[in-house]
Amino acid sequence: MTFQVPIKLSSRNPGDSYPHNLQLYRNVPFGEITLEELQEISETRLKVLSLVERIHLQKPTMSLSQRRIALVEELHKQGLAEFGSLIKNSGCKSCTDMDIRVRRRDHISHFMLRSTVAFNESKKRWFFKQEARLFKWRFSSLDNEGIRQFMCINNFNFSPISQNEKENIREHLHMSSLNVSDVDNTQFYRIPFFHIANLIRKRKVLVLQGEAFVPEQEMAFVFVSYFRRILISNFEVAREARANLYNDERFTHIFAYLENNILTQNTVLVREQEMQQYISLDKLDQLAETSYPLCMRVLHKALRKNHHLTHGGRIQYCLFLKGMGLSLSDAMTFWKDEFMKIMDDTAFKEHMYYIRFNYGKEGSRRDYQPYKCQRILESIVGPRDYHGCPFKHMLHDTLEEQLTDCDFNASERSAIMKLSKNGQYFAACNKYYEIKHDCLNDTLFEHPNIYFNESMKHRTAYHHGEIYLILYISNNLLFCINFKIILKLKIRKQEMHFNHQNQNI
Fold first, then answer.
1. Contact assessment for residue 380 and residue 409, using Cβ atoms and an 8 Å cutoff
2. How far apart are CA 497 and CA 466, in angstroms?
3. Least reliable range by pLDDT among 124-128, 267-271, 384-388
């Protein structure tokens, strides 16, 4: 088969087409490729994206570089070292025939999967998220020369600051760039502030006179936003490309195979040792208050109060606990302690079977996954039930009582209630998260366990730390305020104590 491209690229030097390991995939790939190779590289990329999702969900406290290393290790274990070489490469120092071949396969496989998901909204969202994560992890491997070449190739004019300029603002760079251990040997780039709203919101950069000074290790966040915009704008092109091949059975077979093998959010289980320290029977009450989504918080409190849940509630909550990483033995202890308060041992044995069934130890022995939000929204909920989505299924008065029990004030309750009444259930859940965690969240949650994982990431990352606010007023008047934040997870609600250490004017 032959790919066509709207721009004529030189065939005399293939390096001109693929000068860098990291691509933005703005142009349609060109050249010839066999159908066998096309399917093979598309399947490989699908495996890579599935690994990206799994590592993202299972290693929530890892840094970008740690996740990248974990991905490369997994790729080597699965015999996908070719793609691993792209991820751990520092940029464009090598341009051999093998390098060009690997970059070209990367380019084509991206477009094939983009076309595969173009007509399926849920799978398109899944592809979008994994590709953005993969881009961010790959960018984090670039050295200064790799970053410079990437910006030059893609016509970005963000310039590094000079050594003299760094000397003039060194003190402020030290205070504002808390994740940078060695300011003197770190390259900083001057970037207009509107390109990096996320970094400013997280207080990771110094902003002076409308310009942000971004350390090299944070540059991935600058370009991933641009990459996301490219993906969104080019999905329509992918739809047209697939539509044009609708009657070609050779391609429809490949597309169908790939689409059937994309399992969106196929696992949300947390089994990493680093997270297990936070998940145990004696901490469930505390976690329910601080890190559960409201649907699971309601189920937990109802179980503690009534020592019983109806069938739908038991399944929904049991699978959620499984997804958190609660072991089968702990789950058996947890449910038995509650149920035995109102029933005898004989009656509990039936419930014991279903708990083991959910963990894949009875019946068909399937590895049942926790329910996604969409499935919870579609639940049939009766008057005695506590499962389902509270933002959809609860009476408004009851929902407001639950929010009051969370210590939300009147304006916070009103904001959530308005979204719930308008049928914006995902947005209501996201607003609940933002209020509970005192932060802004860009991506709506589609799974209760992803909500929990993100909450744990947020709380463990900011358990201790210092925040420096650099406020530029006018006439070179600079205020530096140093706050020490101590975050404590409490049964009722996370409290933030600000210990004002010093103020320099």
1. no
2. 12
3. 267-271
Model confidence band, residue 141 (pLDDT cutoffs 50, 70, 90): confident
Q: What beta strand segments (E) does 144-283 contain?
A: 159-160, 188-192, 206-208, 211-215
Helix (H) or strand (E) holding 131: helix 121-139
Identify each DSSP E strand in 382-477 by its residue range: 464-472
The string of pLDDT tens digits covering residues 78-122 is 888 888 888 877 767 778 888 889 999 999 999 999 999 988 887
CATH: 2.60.40, 2.40.128, 1.20.930, 3.30.70. Which one for 14-150+225-268? 1.20.930
Q: How far is CA 146 from the centre of its chain?
A: 25
pLDDT, tens digit, 9 for 90 and up, residues 406-459: 999 999 999 999 999 999 999 999 999 999 999 888 778 889 988 998 888 888
Alpha-carbon distance 156 to 231, whole Å? 18
Report how far residue 87's alpha carbon sits from residue 134's, in angstroms, rounded to the nearest whole number. Answer: 9
Label the pairing between strands 31-32 and 211-215. unpaired
Q: Looking up tokens 């109802």, which residue turns up?
A: 302
Q: Where are the beta strands (DSSP E) in 388-456?
A: none
| Cα separation, 269 vs 275, whole angstroms | 11
Express each pLDDT in 18-68 by its tens digit: 888 899 998 888 888 898 999 999 999 999 998 898 888 666 667 788 888
Locate the DSSP E strands across 110-164: 159-160
Q: Which two tokens stand for residue 281?
A: 């029977």
Tokens of 92: 């464009």
Domain ranges of the chain: 14-150+225-268, 152-220, 281-461
